[in-house]
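ok trying again, last paste got cut off:
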Amino acid sequence: MTTRRTFLKTGAAAATILAAGGLRARAENAPGITATEIKIGQTMPYSGPASAYGVIGKVETAYFKMLNEQGGINGRKLNLISLDDGYSPPKAVEQVRRLVEQEGVAFFFNTLGTPSNAAIRQYLNDAKIPQLFVSTGSSLFADPAHFKWTVGYNPSYVTEAHIFAKHILTTKPGAKIALLYQNDGFGKDYQSGLKAALGANASQIVGEASYETSEPTVDSQVVTLQGSGADVLVIAATPKWAAQAIRKSYDLGWDATRYVSNVSISIATVLKPAGLEKSKGVITGNYGKDVTDPKFKDDAGVAQWKAFCDKYLSGSEFADLNASYGFSAAQTMAQAIKQCGDDLSRDNILAQATNIKDLALPMLLPGITLNTSPTNYNPIRQLQLSRFNGESWELFGALLTD
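nice, full thing came through this time. structure:
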């Protein structure tokens, strides 16, 4: 009897070891996964009209370097291969194909921009390669029914447009509204979201003007919109053009209440180029901590971000909201990888990325947590309105959801 019990215990232990070994073997057979490495792909606009966002990839690379110095995740180092796409969809397609077909990456993380992500989405979904936490809030990337392998990250642009519309109707019910928007899925989400939330009051939109990312300036569009007689200007633009619109609207003496997309609220890369004085009064929907806001002077999360910048980056990144965004995105990706354990099959990587629960991160506003599910691919679902005072963003009101 003793011999039989010993055999059963030994057999159970062996089965456990074999199962664990089999799991690791499966992980190692997955593309981009070895016993010591996880190979991750990314494209970023390190050059071109949206190069202000390139700092995001720089921060994420540094964050993974830090994790690797600490031993990696579950014994594996993270190898982020981040290539320049110049904010050009054809270039993004070329670089993504290279990362898949030559580099053999396991999955993609935080590729930036609505146009670029739209261009690579079908290819990655056809190949069943996870396209995780894409750096855009376009409604195109929260569609699990049709694009199972593509998971969003930024707050929905439609949601922010709804919040802007509700605030306008509450604070300025008779407003005449002008809209400047980028002529792609990003800008059109604000256009449709604004009109939907205004509902019967949609006729209050008295002027609309779009721009292409190939255009050097939006000065003429802003002049046209001022001529519409609007007293509210909604700027659905990425950094270069948002800065131009803020500056030009001020220079025209246009005394309009101005709202700007949360993708263009970096003091370093948008408001300083526009002019801090000229940016006073601009309103946005925020979800991240502004380190220049005195209320976060002694905040533990900001202290963690500063310690990271002091070691791996610099003071310029510390003050850049685009940079702290990259810090949060990298932490989100790390959480999903941790949840994978030793099963790093593409199926499980997707499963864990779509099962994030109440993840609180140091640089998110208090009360905001990340959540995903197999039916909801929008991790960040709350915003708080903020107004720029000439030095920092001042939060006001409560956390808002659509």
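cool. The chain has two domains: 31-155+299-382, 157-286. Residues 1-22 have pLDDT under 50 and may be disordered.
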